[in-house]
Amino acid sequence: MKKHNQKAWLFVLPVLILVAFNALIPMMTVVNYSVQETFGDNLFFWEGLGWFEKLLRSDRFHDALGRQFLFTGLILIIEIPLGIAIALSMPRKGFWVPVCLVTMALPMLIPWNVVGAMWNIFTLPDIGLLGYFMNHTLGINYDMTQDPLAAWITIITMDVWHWTSLVVLLAYAGLVSIPDAYYQAAKIDGASNWAVFRYIQIPKMKNVLTIAILLRFMDSFNIYTEPFVLTGGGPGNSTTLLSIDLVKIALGQFDLGPAAAMSLIYFAITLLVSWLFYTLMTKDDLN
What we know:
Blueprint: H1 9-34, E1 36-38, E2 44-46, H2 50-56, H3 59-89, H4 96-105, H5 112-123, H6 129-137, H7 148-176, H8 180-188, H9 193-204, H10 206-221, H11 225-231, H12 242-252, H13 256-286
Antiparallel strand pairs: 1-2
Helix pairs in contact: 1-13, 2-13, 3-7, 3-10, 5-11, 7-10, 7-11, 10-13, 12-13
Pfam families: BPD_transp_1 (PF00528)
Membrane topology: Multi-pass membrane protein
Keywords: Membrane, Transmembrane, Transmembrane helix, Transport
């Protein structure tokens, strides 16, 4: 019987320890808080699944979750097609290739809190360049601090500006990996541009688009810094996404039990939807 050398696992051990320290231990702390109530001084009282039941019946939780799904849905509907369209229009060879790639990457290099602060100043109705232009030049009543619709348009536009580049770069990587032989065969057959896109480019980009959709879903569904800095969840609670509401409960109200329960439900929803996305987009590969 052949013996296998298991010493290679020693190289993985530091990674496992790091993951345990950075993920599993904090997760266990959250689980501990989610089933208990505390009134300070490290005094804990068993709550069981009470926090989970109250949250799942809470209108506040349902409203915040609905706003979170609405935001993520709009982001995916806009950024995925827009990213593919921009990638298709980018050159494949020549001097402009690195110029376009660097230009596309620039928004992603800006820290999240700086992005929110930039757009906050940019869109203020009196001193912001966009706000002043919309109100005083075009005559459009635009005030994200008072109008919920304007606030939603602003946070959506901000995220599209910030993260469409990720979809562009992934889609472009998929496009340039397609061999020229496919395009030559399509040209010989007289295929239209739409046929080339549908039967060659989209199937060949499927893997990178799966990654793009998963990354954009997880990031947009858990987004916090940019919209919080931009609108603070206002006006009112119109842009209070689930992530913002979670921080308000945990740090603003210091209700650690409900916040821990909400974070676990939040985590479970993210995992479930990500799994559904992945399963649906790869089901043909598994057959």
